[in-house]
Design brief:
The complex is a heterodimer.
Chain A (H helix, E strand, L loop, with lengths): L10 H20 L4 E6 L10 H6 L7 E5 L5 E5 L5 H8 L8 E4 L4 H12 L6 E4 L9 H8 L3 E2 L1 H7 L5 H24 L6 H14 L4 E9 L18 E10 L2 E2 L2 E7 L4 H20 L6 H17 L12 E3 L23 E4 L3 E3 L3 E3 L3 E6 L2 E4 L8 E3 L2
Parallel strand pairs in A: 1-5, 3-4, 5-6, 10-17
Antiparallel strand pairs in A: 1-2, 2-3, 7-8, 8-9, 8-10, 11-12, 12-15, 13-14, 15-16
Helix pairs in contact in A: 4-5, 7-8, 9-10
Chain B lengths: L24 H17 L4 E6 L6 H6 L8 E5 L6 E3 L8 H6 L5 E3 L4 H11 L6 E4 L1 H4 L2 H10 L5 E3 L1 H9 L3 H26 L4 H14 L4 E7 L5 E4 L12 E8 L2 E8 L6 H11 L7 H8 L6 E5 L6 E4 L11 E7 L7 E8 L4 E3 L7 H16 L1
Parallel strand pairs in B: 1-5, 3-4, 5-6
Antiparallel strand pairs in B: 1-2, 2-3, 7-8, 7-9, 9-10, 11-12, 11-13, 13-14, 14-15
The chains are: A alpha+beta, B alpha+beta.
Chain lengths: 391, 381
């Protein structure tokens, strides 16, 4: 099974992405703005939103911007200039009369300013999205070119929070890829493989299955203190291998969290994993529109604390009980005790009671979910169980 | 024609180790002494280096820790161990950072300002503090917040001095970069071998990336020709060109240092490859962009020469007005006169009279062309 990258001509995707731009422009107009600039530094992170990707489907390699004006279509400014064919092909049939993609050879903000000037929009009240990614060195050029602006990062994140059908379909496909690649990894695993070799093989499977970018953590130990990037450590019989598998399709990330033992699992690992699964199920049960994120965490922590491990429900024994997934909106953010968010219909995140327990060490289990009106819907095919491979 | 760019993965996630044979502890002790002298020369009592995944700098130089993506802050108080402010919060990753870098004191604070203030207070320091990397790693309001957190402390920019320091690569750095070049040669051969066996270009690139990651590279980036001939990041580029008409660029980071290799098939424009040697012969101390454009005039497309090391492209950037200095390690990229469809690249080390290749001579079309000829011969049978 392979999943191809979306190319020009995908009408359904085009309509969904055009609807996002329309929503943003409407919100900007309500805020008193007459133009929108969406900036991307192209420093992509699964835990941060990229407005250029969300508004166009184009994932830039270097600084880029999208400009929206009412009745004026959208205009994508691309760097490096030789990446224009990719941008133009992707936008292709997705664009309408008045839309454009253009290469920038000089300064991005000067190019945007010149275009706004040409349309008579220079100096008009401007909504600027992407300020969080605008490093200090670039801010003077942005301000010199665009003048003052209304910051739009929070507005954009909220607008994009309820995932549209395109995002959810991409997330579902990404979850399929994650699960399939993980199954292939299980066939590869054996004592004698180094951690970094395991991650290389997993990455190769994800690529072959169509993932365009991956965030992966794979590490192994007889008793893990945490999960971390792979080292030269050689996998041994008796190890517990931890895998956070986060592929993406057309910019939409997903994440599954898995634990696998090399050889039969010990009773401590089995019991520890069952406890985490119970915590996961309690968290899923608590996930409803209108529920505070902190309540979901309390439900998950309650199961673990109830088993006598309350003191481990905090750093450094765990980090968060889940988190949003970009490159669209990353709301509701970290699923943590300190969150002030309330779940809404359309929220999409990974829920994971990943946790260190003294007897078993650190274990991973987690699934991507979307919050429907009636509760959580799993985007993976099933809750992942504790796996084991022959030593 | 702008610079070579590649599609960076969201978070670097490959082999993360401290190779003590390649970069032993004395390497970092020596680096610290050099930076302490730099700090003293600037009249500072301490130095703060900001790094991020896309802008590695003083923190990586002093400790060997490369951020996978987030902000990392190194605090150097002369005579004291380096303190690293890193992690997403909670300290779950701190033991790992300590195990894979030359730093024992790893902490987390909600903001870098709070962390730096705490470290300075431990040493009862109130003198000027040199800073590097902040403008490239922090948004303006975060940088302002840092300055406010250190109100009363004079902050002096050290960016220029750190940039100058990092340009001239140390012997062990050069050795790692040569190793990276050798690994990339292996990756290139893997791609060629797969294509000779009849694989698609996509299949060849999957194998090439796997080979590089199995050889120990932490990050791998690829560019390849699309069906219309334009160069695109893989695998975001859509339909790829036929192998007989492709340019491929492989780039990989090994132990924190980048290498790259470009190769073309016999069906593509090989002019850049043939001219690369002539361009490199024109490189020497004092040379600038205009000099190299004159050397390449009428022969090819755009010339791009910049530093390389922690980043694929870093200071000096000749197109931005810099000139070559002895000790520079440069990426030399010659684009075809075809709107960015073909590229030839090599790396050189500048000595007092010119430049010498870092690693083996770039192979360009020979190896890939030979493999493809074998493939065509097989098909004919």
């Amino acid at each position: 099974m392979t999943t191809r990258a979306r190319t020009a001509g995908d009408a359904v995707a085009g309509e969904a992405i055009a609807a996002r731009r329309a929503k943003l422009l409407e919100a900007a107009t309500e805020a008193g703005c007459e133009a929108v600039v969406v900036y991307s530094p192209a420093r992509h992170s699964m835990l941060a939103m990229d407005g250029v990707v969300w508004t166009t489907g184009y994932r830039p390699m270097a600084e880029s911007a999208v400009v929206l004006v009412p009745g004026g279509g959208f205009h994508l400014f691309v760097t490096p200039d030789w990446d224009l064919p990719r941008a133009a092909e992707l936008l292709g049939d997705l664009s309408q009369a008045g839309d454009s993609a253009r290469a920038v050879e000089g300064d991005l903000f000067e190019a945007v300013e010149q275009w706004l000037d040409g349309t008579g929009s220079a100096g008009a009240p401007l909504l600027f999205c992407g300020e969080r990614g605008l490093v200090a060195r670039r801010r003077p050029q942005a301000q010199a070119a665009l003048g003052s602006w209304l910051g739009g990062d929070r507005l954009l994140g909220e607008l994009a929070r309820r995932r549209d059908n395109l995002e959810l379909e991409l997330a579902r496909r990404a979850a399929e890829v994650a699960e399939a690649a993980y199954q292939r990894l299980l066939a590869d695993l054996r004592p004698g493989l180094d951690e970094y070799e395991a991650i290389a093989l997993l990455e190769s499977h994800l690529r072959a299955l169509g993932s365009q970018d991956n965030f992966i953590l794979v590490s192994a130990s007889q008793r893990n203190r945490s999960v971390h990037p792979p080292t030269d450590r050689t996998i041994e019989s008796g190890d517990v291998l931890l895998a956070e598998v986060s592929p993406s399709i057309d910019g939409m990330f997903t994440q599954i969290c898995r634990s696998v033992t090399i050889g039969p699992p010990s009773s401590q690992v089995v019991q520890g994993y069952e406890l985490l699964m119970a915590s996961l199920e309690a968290g899923l049960h608590a996930c409803r529109p209108g529920t505070a994120v902190a309540e979901v965490v309390a439900a998950m922590d309650g199961v673990i604390a109830g088993a006598g491990y309350g003191e481990y429900c905090k750093p450094p024994f765990m980090r968060a009980r889940g988190h949003g997934l970009g490159i669209g909106s990353v709301l509701p953010g970290d699923i943590s005790r300190s969150s002030t968010q309330t779940l809404v219909e359309g929220d999409y995140f990974v829920i994971h009671p990943n946790q260190y327990l003294p007897e078993s060490g650190y274990l991973l289990c987690g699934e991507p979910i979307v919050i429907d009106a009636e509760g959580p819907r799993l985007l993976s095919s099933a809750l992942g169980g504790l796996a084991s491979v022959e030593p | 024609m702008s610079t070579l760019a590649t599609m960076a993965p969201v978070i670097c996630h490959g082999r993360t180790v401290w190779d003590r044979r390649a970069l032993p502890t004395d390497e970092y002790e020596e680096r610290r002494e050099i930076v302490e002298k730099l700090v003293a020369k600037a009249g500072c009592a301490a130095a703060v280096g900001f790094d991020s995944g896309s802008s590695p700098g003083l923190a990586a130089y002093l400790t060997g820790h490369r951020s996978a993506g987030g902000l990392v802050t190194a605090v150097l108080v002369p005579g004291a161990p380096v303190v690293l402010l890193a992690g997403l919060g909670g300290g779950r990753d701190h033991p790992f950072i300590k195990a894979t870098s030359f730093v024992d004191d790893v902490r987390w604070y909600p903001t870098p300002g709070e962390g730096v203030r705490a470290v300075l207070a431990e040493h009862d320091l109130s003198g000027p503090v040199g800073t590097a990397g902040g403008e490239d790693c922090l948004p303006a309001d975060a940088l302002l917040g840092f300055a406010e957190a250190l109100a009363g402390v004079e902050l002096r920019p050290l960016d220029g001095a750190v940039e100058s320091l990092r340009r001239a690569k140390r012997p062990r750095e050069l050795a790692v970069m040569r190793r990276a070049a050798a690994l990339l040669d292996g990756g290139r051969r893997t791609v060629a071998a797969e294509l000779a066996r009849g694989a698609s270009l996509h299949g060849g690139l999957v194998s090439g990336e796997l080979a590089l990651r199995l050889a120990g590279c932490r990050d791998v980036r690829l560019l390849a020709s699309a069906a219309d001939g334009s160069l695109r990041p893989w695998p975001w580029g859509g339909e790829l060109a036929a192998p007989e008409q492709a340019t491929v660029v492989l780039a990989a980071e090994y132990l924190g240092y980048w290498g790259e290799v470009a190769f073309v098939s016999t069906g593509a424009d090989t002019a850049p490859a043939a001219l690369l040697g002539e361009l490199c012969a024109a490189i020497g101390p004092g040379v600038g962009q205009a000099d190299l454009e004159r050397a390449a005039a009428g022969l090819a497309g755009a010339v791009e020469v910049c530093g390389t090391g922690f980043e694929l492209s870093e200071s000096p950037v000749l197109a931005a007005g810099a000139t070559v200095r002895e000790g520079d390690v440069l990426a030399v990229r010659l684009w075809g006169d075809d709107g960015g469809r073909t590229l030839a690249t090599c790396r050189v080390v500048v000595n007092d009279s010119g430049a010498v290749l870092l690693g083996a001579a770039p192979p360009h079309e020979e190896l890939l062309g030979g493999a493809l000829a074998a493939r065509r011969g097989g098909a004919a049978r």
